[in-house]
Predict the structure.
Amino acid sequence: MHPRDQTIFALSSGRPPSAIAIVRVSGPEAGAALKKLAGKIPSPRVATRASLRDASDQGIDDSIVLWFPGPASATGEDVAEFHVHGGRAVLGSLFAALAGIKNLRAAEPGEFTRRAFENGKLDLTEAEGLDDLIHADTDRQRRQALRQLKGLLGERARDWRKQVIEASALIEAGIDFSDEGDVPVELIAPALEKIEALRDEIKEVLAAQGQAERLRDGLVVAIAGPPNVGKSTLMNQLARREVAIVSPHAGTTRDIIEVQLDLDGYPVTVIDTAGIRETDDPVEQEGVRRARTRAAEADLVLWLADADSAKMGHDGSTPVWLVRNKIDLDHAVGRDGIALPEFRISAARGDGVAGLIGALVGFAQDFFGSAESGLITRERQRSLLMDTAASLDRSLAAVGRGEELVAEDLRSAAYSLGRLLGRVDVEDILDVIFREFCIGK
């Protein structure tokens, strides 16, 4: 039997131990598995109490079972759910009993969602939205993923593809029946009007997306500066917990330390880097090299310096904020005539840190803009929409050089939109997308 025709099972709830665990079974043998373990198949979509027993008639657990006959199920197949107590021993016994049934096997990562996709329950953009929803760390990421899961991009893409096909039908009708009197001579005119409007709409979406994809990965802020200025102390203040070792000795931080923060719903990765200075220590030299590299790749650099320091050691293209630390030590600030720093804090006491965090939230708001409501959340989506727009451009440019060329470019545009939805020739990317899912989803 082909693996796709087999019945699969997996834990679909959190890691044990837990109060309740949900084990889902999907495929043609789901009903047989439910009857074998629970003794009966309950009414569809009605939670029913059942005593589960294995093949040797040994009790497994007192549970709640549900039955969802296909195609009216999450995957489009017959689906059974076992709601059991979430102990490891209970789950181990249930998994062993399921595995002992012919043509049942443990599911691969993302296999339930892939079957839902293959059975037309959701398109590929919605599947990507589901994956983003599972991995969302902040409320803004959750809201953006939920919009994708509800078909925000998929609905637009289906409408665009429909319009391309309609325009293509007009063009090809002119090609195939140009010698028949009932086909208007100017059949191509409304098609070109439709193509131009559609091209402009897609380009407008592409131009408006800016940082939309970045909301999935978050903003990267690097804390950089010379040794022993309080970078690790500031990192701990921002994280509100001890994530970095703080020491009065220069060179304590030699590798990159990262922490994920939720700043007003914006995902922010803060990086604590090694102190940037000249050194003969090969280990510290590597730390300095990595620090410079990560600072250059960051979206914002917080250059930390002592309160009386006037030197800025970062000269890359990344935006830099000068943060003067240790204001509690009564240094002489501005004695060299330089302008007052943008931020003055005491990382040790927390003075000024709230203002710095507020400024970071403002930076994130400007950085992401209206990303949360954006249509495009992945590079794959952007690339295929760019291909679509390019094909529409070529079709318009081909007018006058042959209607066959126009029709061919329209077919390319429809093909790109089909790939976006996952409805044509996407086997090469399905494994990549669905293997990112957790097992049981």
